[in-house]
Every structure is written in C-alpha cells, then in structure tokens.
Amino acid sequence: MAPRFHAFLPARACLAVSGEDAKTFLQGLVSSDASKVDPAHARYGAFLTAQGRFLHEFLMLEIAGAVHLVAEAARLDDLQRRLKIYKLRAKVALAPAPSLAAVAFWGEGAAAAFGLPDDAGAAVETGGGAACVDPRLPALGVCALMPAESAAAFAQTHGFAAATAADYDRHRLALGVPDGSRDLPVDDALLLENGFDELGGVDWKKGCYVGQEVTARMKYRALVRKRLLPVRIDGPAPAAGTPIMLGDKAAGEMRSSAGDLGLALLRLEAVDKAASDGVPLVAGDAKLVPHKPGWANF
C-alpha cells in the first residue's frame, strides 16, 4: 500500500453553532447549503460582505446536533463576532470548541480507514468528534475534528505516518486549493475567481445569502476574468502580494507558496498569451509556470 499520512493543523480551529435555529441561521448567511449538513454530510462554504467580497471560509460538520465550522484559528474571534451581528432573536449559541483539533488524513485508503466512501463531503461522527472526506476535493483526503489524543491513537492504529502542517500545505498547493486569507484577501477576493464553484463552496439552488447577488451576477454574466491557479516557481518564492508581470504588463498577484509550489491570482488573458508567445510570467526574481488543475472548469 502507498504511504498515507496525518498532520495536525494548528492554523485551523472550530466554532460550534448550536441551538434549534442553527442551520436556519447559517442558511441565510453562507454561500453553500447549510440545511444539507448532517452527521453523514459535510459542506464547504464562505461568509461574504454584502458586496460579495470574501470574509471567511470553512468546512461545516455536524457533531452532537451542532454545526461545527472549521475555520482559520487566528481569525476565529472575528468570525464569531461577525456572525453574532446577525443573531438577533435566533435561538443560536456561538462558541469555540478548543477541545477538538483539526487533523488532516491523506493518502491511499484514507477515507476507507474511517469507513467512508470516496465521495466529497461524506462524513461520520467518530472518536468524540467527526471526520469527512474533504467536501472541496476528495483528493485532499479526510478532514477530522477530534480530541488530539483520539486523533493520534486513530492514526497509529490505522497506519497513518506522522507528517507536518507544512507537508499538508504542499499537498494542498499541488492540488491548487486555496487556504483562507492566505490566498483570499479579506474584503477583496471574489469566490468565483478562486474556484469556489467547482470546489463545492457555492450552492446555486439555495435561497439568498449575504453577497449572493454579486456572486450570481458574476456567474450568469460570465464576468470571471481572473483565476487562482497553481504555479511552479523557478527561483526564490515570491512573497504573497508580489505583482506578477508579463513583460511590462501586470498579469496578476502572488498568493501562498511553499518551496517551488504556489498559488497565484492570474489574468486568464495573460496566461494564454504567455503560453502562446513562450514568454515567462515573472514575480520578483522568480519565473512562474501556471497550470490548470484537473478539477477546474473554465
């Protein structure tokens, strides 16, 4: 069997949304269908400004009747604060769940080890928490919310070698999947430029949510001109935010990276021209070679 790995993700933490109105409350706020979250199904979604700009993204899993949002640890207080603004009279409680650690399991048979099919979002409650095949992309593996000791014991019992968050980061970058505000500038990024449609982060059949009008307009008027793409980096990895040039013209902006792998928000016209003319994209002292991930549809 090919090796499989697990890594604790300290940059991710959990906000529990409980109470009888929890799913109804989230349904009016987030970009995916919160009503479809249950013990057997997880979802991926985002919380936006009224202008359709990115604020937060998260996985949603149900544990013991509450919806748990796996979001950026450093910005969890901000997520809780912003959600509270919309609470009004809803019978909802919002509280961090520090006893649950976010853990990634990936490699051959990762889903089967949890008794799950290789279906995006397939979930199960286990080990005092829950685990799901990543609802963005099954190739990412399994995301688990479990007490740290339970996760470590499960990994040892089922043959998952210990890896680091940096190892998982390279796995993510190779697949071209964004990671929160590292790749999505807050109050600026647009979902459809960053793959949320194909990655299951937008439900087009649900009702209204904050920022829905702008997101829908971009899709139905075909207004997407830039995309977040994985890039191979030849040279020193550019810092996030570094301008990317095609000759003397702006082509995009660098996002997160690890070694020779990275993500960049690029103008599709510039990507096509670079390929047809055989001219490299340049960011600082590095040359970038973008490619379209297999899951992307544009």
What report would you give on this structure?
With 298 residues, the protein is of the alpha+beta class. It has 2 domains: 164 residues, Probable tRNA modification gtpase trme, domain 1 (Gyrase A, domain 2, 2-Layer Sandwich); 110 residues, Elongation Factor Tu (Ef-tu), domain 3, CATH 2.40.30.160. It has 8 helices and 17 strands. Strands 8-9-10-7-1-11 form a 6-stranded mixed sheet, with helices on both faces. A 6-stranded antiparallel sheet has the order 13-14-15-12-17-16. It has a 5-stranded antiparallel sheet with strand order 3-4-5-2-6, with helices on one face. Strand 4 and strand 5 form a beta hairpin. The longest helix has 11 residues. It starts with a strand and ends in an 8-residue tail after the last strand. The model has no long low-confidence stretch (mean pLDDT 96).
Beta-strand content estimate: 25-35%
The coarse overall form would be globular
Name of the CATH class of the largest domain: Alpha Beta
Oligomeric description of these chains: single chain
Straight-line N-to-C gap: 35 Å
At CATH level 3, the topology of the largest domain is Gyrase A, domain 2
Evaluate the radius of gyration.
19 Å
Looking at the overall shape, the CATH architecture of the largest domain is 2-Layer Sandwich
How many strands, which pairing sense, and closed or not: the largest β-sheet? 6 strands, mixed
Query: Roughly what percent helix?
Result: 10-25%
- The secondary-structure class comes to alpha+beta
Low-confidence stretches: none
The number of distinct helices, counting runs of at least 4 residues, comes to 8
